[in-house]
């Protein structure tokens, strides 16, 4: 460890520039992770990684090198004045009685300069942005500012046109959600997070504190998951500072492997991935946690639900074998004991009907199916979910998302979690059901998650391959889709005629 200091000229360009800015701001101290933490020293990293959250939370300002891919890129750039002042033009438009001098400026420079910058591709940076009071981004074209109240730049010093009221909103995001809470994709989210911390909920929205917490945390996870990590074991560590800050609202003991043990915990299980990849070599979370995968995740069902989701599965117990650091590989993962509607299913892929485009890209992420049908054009395929012994199959608007490769000859089960009205591109709002796809584990009644599903029961069709139910009315089949499943005792811990089967997910 250095005790006598080091010459500034020997530091990388970004460090030197950050020191220059700090001096010009009249501040005395600066924290640079790479300097203040001994690199490649596991003990020093373990000690300081926990306190880094406080460093960013209490800092006067955070400096972000948005235009640099590494520590040698620096903060400062030679810039074109037109990018800040705009290009002046003389415009005459007689039909609109418009004439005079105007300035042409970009409508939303944030996306290119900040959201798509190399810096924001790093998962650790997301936590640092949320925890900081305010961040100045040194981008390729100008300076940008972000805090809990404002997104601004040199071009728009009093807030840019990319503020919430001008922001693009997906057509299927529910109006019932709090203002600004949606599955955003441009990284402008800090104002919503700050609103949750200050508990200043919008009085015009009928949303409880717990509901607000659910949607904000879902947005936190979705945006964090896009970032890249160099160490698999950092998956939960790199977001732990945000979780710690949120203990102002929810007790720390309610935080478990990336989720919160609240009443709406079943809804938190409805995360999904768009691509299925090989499982990470180091397991830091159980299969029911989004932290068990290393691909971007989202909570699409929550944000698209036009009505408040009705939860039909309840948490009976949470089994935690022992307390262990978030960064270590787990040998016996915490288990969720759930009770809800359960039935056995299988996958089938077939030619697309004329109802509309594919709702899911499931087919291209599942190696087994893909290899069998590689001679067909991808756009001619759509996933189908067949309900075993029910005489029904679900295609469009059926959606299947797999987290991981399904082992050969696995028995697959569907656990219904919630139902709500969903808006579809080619349909009106449809009553839809969403849940988990599971495969059996070694112990009785124990499962591992492999994905999620979403179906519209009223659009399900008869499965003519099921000879046992071929003469039963389709409407009757639909009514009984989750009842009388006849699940073998090997695959459940108990059955309640009203509430369904009790199972354990690890």
Features:
alpha+beta; 13-stranded mixed sheet; globular; HET; Heterokaryon incompatibility domain-containing protein
The general outline is globular
Number of DSSP strand runs = 23
Decide which structural class fits the backbone.
alpha+beta
What share of residues are in beta strands? Answer: 15-25%
N-C termini distance:
43 Å
The number of helical elements comes to 15
Oligomerization category of the chains in this entry: single chain
Total tally of structural domains: 3
Helix content: 10-25%
Q: Please tell me the overall pLDDT.
A: 82
Protein name: Heterokaryon incompatibility domain-containing protein
Domain Heterokaryon incompatibility: 9-128
Pfam family, one: HET
Organism: Fusarium oxysporum f. sp. raphani
Describe this structure in words.
The structure is a single chain. The chain is built from 15 helices and 23 strands. The chain is α+β, with helices and mostly antiparallel strands. It folds into three domains: 218 residues, no CATH class; 27 residues, no CATH class; 216 residues, no CATH class. Strands 11, 12, 13, 14, 15, 16, 17, 18, 19, 20, 21, 22 and 23 form a 13-stranded mixed sheet that branches. Strand 15 and strand 16 form a beta hairpin. The two termini are 43 Å apart. The relative contact order is 0.09.
